């Protein structure tokens, strides 16, 4: 019986101890859980910031960053919604970063494409002929070219895409005017520097410039065509098989030959040399006398603009724009082999690469 009472006492004692341990374990568990929640809530009150470096470009690493931020695995399990928000934030940040870099790359690609096209045009489109070859349906109009490999800025010129197959680069132009025409038009009584660099505008009267002429006509072989109109609205033309000018150090000396056409030859020496031929002459203006006359400066004496004067010339296509009065001589825009001392209403000098067939 004593043994029985002892056994019962031991059993009850063991049972009480076991209950004590269970209660302590539960209290400890709740204590840990509560402490963890406080830490998590404290972190949640802080502003949300996720620092993403450029190397954080894979989602698993981003998720890892978010778990560390959330304070541990246990809390992440309890707050998986918040952690999910953080992952989405991180992915949005990466998306923004990638978009920004894509935009930057796109801008750089566009810049390279633009430069490539510019270089390509410079190499492939030197003049109106190149445009016509690439696009046979191209119409008359103003186009931009880099006229030589050193060209920094594109230069605007008028292209004649119709006359005799087109592809003509206009180097000089005087548009037809009427007496009652009060609109502005370019003056051609200019100094040497203006004739060097060019003046006027491609959609109106203009002179392309001796430096540009030198660059163009020394890069390939050109033919020259001159279109003329008088005040009776008659037309004529002069065609030369070969045309080029030398550079500044050679006084922009003119070389032109191989005449054909309806206007007569007022430039070359094909038939006979005389004191008015332009071929072989240097360029002169009122302030730069390089003509062959020892007595006068042709340009300033006759007031006829810049030209390849001899003593003096059969042509003044850069003379002042004067209207022809019936029966009177007119010193202005002249082509003597066609209309002698009558002033002309319109002129157009244009060049095209010689085609070797
Ligand atoms: Ca002289």
UniProtKB/TrEMBL annotation:
InterPro entries: Fibrinogen-like_C (IPR036056), Fibrinogen_a/b/g_C_1 (IPR014716), Fibrinogen_a/b/g_C_dom (IPR002181), Fibrinogen_C-term_domain (IPR050373), Fibrinogen_CS (IPR020837). Keywords: Coiled coil, Disulfide bond, Signal. Transmembrane segments: none annotated. GO terms for cellular component: extracellular space. Gene3D superfamilies: Gamma Fibrinogen, chain A, domain 1 (3.90.215.10). SUPFAM superfamilies: Fibrinogen C-terminal domain-like (SSF56496). Residues 119-355 form the Fibrinogen C-terminal domain. Residues 88-122 form a coiled coil. Pfam families: Fibrinogen_C. Residues 1-25 form the signal peptide. The keyword Signal applies. NCBIfam families: GGGWT_bact. This is Fibroleukin. It comes from Armadillidium nasatum. The gene is Fgl2.
């Amino acid at each position: 019986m004593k043994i029985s009472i002892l056994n019962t006492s031991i059993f009850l004692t063991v049972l009480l101890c076991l209950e004590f341990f269970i209660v302590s374990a539960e209290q400890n568990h709740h204590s840990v859980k509560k402490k963890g929640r406080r830490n998590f809530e404290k972190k949640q009150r802080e502003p949300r910031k996720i620092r993403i470096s450029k190397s954080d470009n894979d989602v698993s690493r981003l998720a890892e960053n978010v778990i560390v931020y959330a304070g541990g695995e246990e809390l992440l399990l309890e707050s998986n919604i918040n952690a999910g928000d953080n992952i989405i934030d991180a992915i949005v940040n990466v998306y923004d970063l990638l978009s920004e870099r894509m935009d930057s790359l796109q801008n750089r690609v566009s810049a390279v494409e633009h430069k490539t096209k510019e270089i390509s045009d410079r190499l492939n489109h030197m003049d109106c002929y190149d445009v016509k070859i690439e696009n046979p349906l191209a119409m008359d109009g103003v186009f931009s070219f880099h006229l030589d490999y050193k060209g920094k800025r594109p230069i605007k010129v008028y292209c004649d895409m119709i006359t005799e197959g087109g592809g003509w680069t206009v180097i000089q132009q005087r548009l037809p005017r009427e007496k009652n025409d009060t609109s502005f038009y370019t003056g051609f009584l200019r100094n040497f520097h203006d004739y060097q660099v060019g003046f006027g505008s491609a959609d109106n009267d203009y002179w392309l410039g001796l430096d540009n002429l030198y660059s163009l006509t020394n890069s390939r072989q050109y033919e020259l065509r001159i279109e003329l109109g008088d005040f009776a609205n008659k037309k004529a033309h002069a065609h030369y098989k070969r045309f080029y000018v030398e550079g500044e150090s050679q006084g922009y000396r003119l070389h032109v030959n191989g005449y054909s056409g309806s206007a007569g030859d007022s430039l070359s020496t094909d038939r006979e040399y005389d004191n008015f031929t332009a071929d072989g002459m240097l360029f002169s203006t009122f302030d730069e006398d390089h003509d062959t006359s020892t007595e006068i400066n042709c340009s300033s004496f006759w007031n006829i603009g810049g030209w390849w004067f001899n003593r003096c010339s059969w042509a003044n296509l850069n003379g002042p724009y004067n209207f022809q009065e019936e029966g009177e001589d007119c010193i202005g825009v002249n082509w003597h082999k066609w209309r002698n001392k009558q002033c002309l209403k319109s002129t157009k000098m244009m060049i095209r690469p010689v085609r070797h067939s």
